[in-house]
Specification:
Elements (H helix, E strand, L loop, with lengths): L4 E5 L3 H12 L3 E5 L3 H20 L5 H9 L1 E4 L10 E4 L5 H14 L5 E4 L6 H5 L8 E6 L8 E6 L5 H13 L3 E6 L6 H17 L5 H12 L5 H8 L1 H15 L8 H9 L15
Parallel strand pairs: 1-2, 1-4, 2-3, 4-5, 5-6, 7-8
Antiparallel strand pairs: 6-7
The protein binds acetoacetyl-coenzyme A.
GO biological process, one term: butyrate metabolic process
Pfam families: 3HCDH, 3HCDH_N
Pathway: Lipid metabolism; butanoate metabolism
Length: 283
């Protein structure tokens, strides 16, 4: 199972980062989105990241050009017809993901591995709509993708050892560290991270401390690079709520109930950094 050509679905924050690291590692990447404007925005972010690397002396101007030349535009899922790996980083919605995987199963050759960057949706359920559940796998990158070392690799119920090994090798080629995880709600990363963030929101909700104090305790006391409320803003409060709901529903345990303050902020449209306001205000 040699992977050479890759198609990434979704040119947002995660998809563009994934396309960038694939191109940096020498893979030919098609970056797919529904509309040209989304693709253009993704390429802009990649170009900005690479330009910063050139400024800091980590890459040459030639390397930057080579990396950008390895990324091509795709506005049609049929472009997946000649790739060895698809990494889907579309919106976190089971119906949409299943629809994409159904189409990919028709379009791609039999050897193609279909990976999803979902942060919490069951891999097994996505795989079940295809005729190749053995070749469906989770490849969960962390944000910001070019910086964070981890890729959580999630085996669906039917994922074969051969497919796991191919994705593990691919991850190492991307200069990332693969960690193997089984398919349970939130996997490992979000099963542990999101309840911590949710608890930080409860701490604010109950008036135990100010938002600044809560973040300061976790930054200076636990050596976290960002406090939990700042991190929630960075991830997106809608995403945090969505993942808490998946944990709550998936385990049926009240310890995962989302904090009412989190719901209130999401209803207000205060989704964090991306909307200019979450727990903090962003200019
Ligand atoms: N893209 C590319 N590079 C970036 C970047 C981005 N979006 N953001 C920061 N960087 C780079 C900067 O260029 C900088 O590199 P140099 O110093 O070599 O120039 C380096 O990262 C550090 O950045 P800063 O000095 O601006 O700021 P910082 O020291 O606070 O680091 C951070 C920024 C890496 C984001 C750090 O704050 C951090 O690690 N935060 C926590 C991130 C985290 O927990 N991510 C996981 C989120 S959960 C998730 O992704 C999974 C999920 O399913 C929800």
């Amino acid at each position: 199972m040699t992977i050479q050509k890759v198609l990434v679905i979704g040119a947002g924050q995660m998809g563009s980062g994934i396309a960038q690291v694939c191109a940096q590692a020498g893979f030919d990447v098609k970056l797919n989105d529904r509309e040209e404007q989304f693709y253009n925005r993704g390429i802009q972010v990649i170009t900005k990241n690479l330009s910063r690397d050139v400024e800091k002396g980590r890459k040459t101007e030639e390397e930057k050009t080579e990396i950008l030349n390895r990324i091509s535009k795709s506005l049609d899922l049929n472009d997946a017809a000649d790739v060895d790996l698809v990494i889907e980083a579309a919106v976190e919605n089971m119906e949409i993901k299943q629809q994409i995987f159904r189409q990919l199963d028709e379009i791609t050759p039999a050897h193609t591995i279909l990976a999803t960057n979902t942060s919490s949706l069951p891999i097994t359920e996505i795989a079940a709509v295809t005729n190749r559940p053995a070749k469906v796998i989770g490849m969960h990158f962390m944000n910001p993708v070019p910086v964070m070392k981890l890729v959580e690799i999630i085996r669906g119920l039917a994922t074969t050892d051969e497919v796991y090994a191919a994705i593990e090798e691919m991850t190492k080629k991307l200069a990332k560290v693969p960690v193997e995880v089984n398919d349970f709600p939130g996997f490992v990363s979000n099963r542990i991270l999101m309840p911590m963030i949710n608890e930080a929101i409860y701490t604010l909700y109950e008036g135990v401390a100010t938002k600044e104090a809560i973040d300061e305790v976790m930054k200076l006391g636990m050596n976290h690079p960002m406090g939990p409320l700042q991190l929630a803003d960075f991830i997106g409060l809608d995403t945090c709520l969505y993942i808490m709901e998946i944990l709550h529903e998936g385990f049926g345990d009240s310890k995962y109930r989302p904090c009412p303050l989190l719901r209130k902020y999401v209803k207000a449209g205060w989704l964090g950094k991306k909307t200019g306001r979450g727990f903090y205000v962003y200019e």
